[in-house]
Amino acid sequence: MDLEQLRKIAAEVVAREDVNYLIGWKQGTYGYRVAPVFIEDPADASELIFSPLCTANLATYLTLVEKPPLPRGQEPDTRKVALMVKGCDSRAVAQLLVEKGINREGVVIIGCPCPGMVDHSLLAEKYPETEDLAEIKWDGEGFLLLRDGEEVKLDRYEVLAEKCRLCRYPNPLVSDILLGEEVEPWEPEEDSGVTEIEDKDIEGRWAYWEEQFANCVRCYSCRNVCPLCYCEDCILDRLNPDWINRSVNFSENTAFHIARAFHLAGRCSECGECERVCPANIPLGRLNRKLAREVRDKYGFEPGLDPEAEPFQASYKPDDPEDFIL
Amino acid sequence: MSDNFNPNIVAFLCNWCSYAGADLAGTSRVQYPANVQIIRVMCSGRVNPLYVMNALQQGADGVLVSGCHPGDCHYMEGNYYARRRLGMLKDLMEFIGVDPRRFNMSWVSASEGHKWKEVVEKSVEDAREAGPFEGFRRRQIDW
Hints:
The complex is a heterodimer of chains A (326) and B (143).
Chain A: H1 3-15, E1 19-27, E2 34-39, E3 48-49, H2 60-64, E4 80-85, H3 87-98, E5 107-111, H4 120-126, E6 135-139, E7 142-147, E8 150-154, H5 156-159, H6 162-165, E9 177-178, H7 192-198, H8 202-213, H9 221-225, H10 250-263, H11 273-277, H12 284-299
Chain B: E1 9-14, H1 18-27, E2 36-41, H2 49-57, E3 62-67, H3 78-96, E4 103-107, H4 113-130
């Protein structure tokens, strides 16, 4: 994508009367870091980037905004928020629209067709992060890494993020402004992570997850980063009823992960953020993708494709499968 | 598992059909296993999936959810929502490694006292085969 064009369009959008600020990505401070940026002044639009390291799903910030009570006589700011989205992020936005978590009039969606993102940890494993900023670009099929003044060509599947290997919607599904050309969707890989667990027997699965959940420190990063976990009154924070105890042990961790995955059933846009931010490297994406697979295969439903659709768990079909009922 | 094991089963029954069905089984003197603890809810659609998990955490070896037959719900559509949600919960629990036999769902109407008996017998048998569910128990702290 042409960065000049991106910055020019972003500056135009921010300069609009009815736009408050724009959420995008900017270069981080060292190594491969990329940080989210909130742009209110058109002059700052030159900070914006869109590179294979822009993994973060910025749709989270739409619902994270704090809305403190206003002083008397002050009107709430009803200006729009502009947001840069990739294909998977746009599904999260569409799902937010389905749930009426945000107003369509309240957002300007700037779609960035995404040729695939780099997995930060895979990249840092092969080419350790340095103090200096490194740059990475799409280069034909693969990636081009500019680091310490040298250019390294990277094979696409060497560093491609898992969510991108499985991606079916690289182009934004909802957008007001589309930057650059749409990319050709690639053939998604078989979801080996989910299949690997499905192939185990019941005890094997329990043992697998026991090992994973035992690492969980209950930092709730997965909840906080998720664009679709935005309940003002979350069951995890609620004291009465105390659904899930705060203590960090296997039983509560398992209950927490079942509840978290279940609350995303038929809603998850598979942006993979929960897995990326997890400090214990728990493969949370597998739980989400398993449910997404069930929802797709059994109920013929895919979240985030149509902003006008009915929410999955708040709708039903008379002929839903009921083979599990006695 | 040994036949001596007596599983605890928590049953969530809807007020309008299944609870009345279980009541009918009682008044008709139908003999069925005494392993079920019945909790009456207003509708099977009221059963939050967290109820199921909490029951398992707090000592149940199996959970049974029962409601009106599709189309007969007192609230028109509550059992359809329940079917969708709990069906997915069952898939998820199976994926995590909870024996699917620990969770059953059934439709029992107010006139089906005998079906209630069969459902209970099946759930008890299932939970007995699956064995005690110790791995998921909530840690009890005795101060």
